[in-house]
Specification:
Shape: elongated
Structural class: alpha+beta
Number of domains: 2
Distance between the termini: 42 Å
Number of strands: 9
Length: 215
């Protein structure tokens, strides 16, 4: 079973949540296992740090018992929670099951269950991968059929030989199988796109497109 980060933050009391969040912010700042820049779909460490600082400020203000300030604090906590969950998915993808790397993130890890079945196995490749040029320069539009069991979709691109694994790079993590927009591409460059679903047991098999030139 691949190493997994624990992201059930909703059940934590506020003091515990603040402690866990602060540990993660500190651990991700300058973490050499996760060099910047991160994909645009993933909140950057600085964005997380700013959101956490705002939560700390609002939590202190809400200590007075003012209902409006408590509501603002709760919204800020929800924002940090969403960011932590998005980031966790990216961290797991980069670590590729390496527990030692995940232990540097500040997140708690699920206990390994040696000898137990990993479940139904990896997800199959998504069907009907389509890649089209977008309405604007440097944009490609990607979609696949919704894959049962996939909670999100990883999209990678290559602008050189797609048979060479190191030519691929992560560009986005999408919660949906359709209307995935890839931006900032270089006009005149041929791109290969591949997509895989991510389920409860980790990433699945890749669906890969033929090359398409960005305009």
């Amino acid at each position: 079973m691949s190493a997994k980060l624990i992201v059930t933050f909703e059940s934590c009391s506020l003091p515990v949540f603040l402690t866990k969040s602060e540990r993660i912010v500190t651990s991700l700042t300058g973490n050499s296992h996760y060099p910047l820049p991160w994909p645009t779909a993933v909140p950057a460490p600085t964005a997380l740090a700013n959101a956490f600082a705002n939560l700390q400020r609002l939590a202190s203000a809400a200590a007075s018992g003012d209902t409006a300030k408590i509501a603002a604090r709760n919204l800020a906590r929800d924002e940090v929670t969403v960011m932590l969950k998005k980031i966790a998915l990216y961290l797991e993808l980069v670590a590729d099951g390496d527990r030692a790397i995940l232990e540097t993130t500040g997140y708690e890890l699920a206990k390994a269950h040696g000898g137990h079945s990993p479940g139904p196995g990896v997800l199959p490749a998504p069907e009907n991968l389509r890649v089209e040029r977008g309405p604007l320069s440097g944009v490609l539009l990607v979609q696949v059929h919704t894959l049962k069991g996939a909670g999100s979709y990883e999209v990678q691109i290559a602008s050189a030989d797609p048979k060479v694994e190191t030519n691929w790079r992560l560009v986005t993590l999408s919660k949906t199988a359709t209307h995935i927009e890839l931006t900032g591409l270089t006009p005149g460059t041929v791109y290969y796109v591949r997509v895989r679903g991510i389920g409860s047991h980790g990433p699945g098999a890749w669906a890969e497109s033929s090359g398409i030139m960005a305009v």
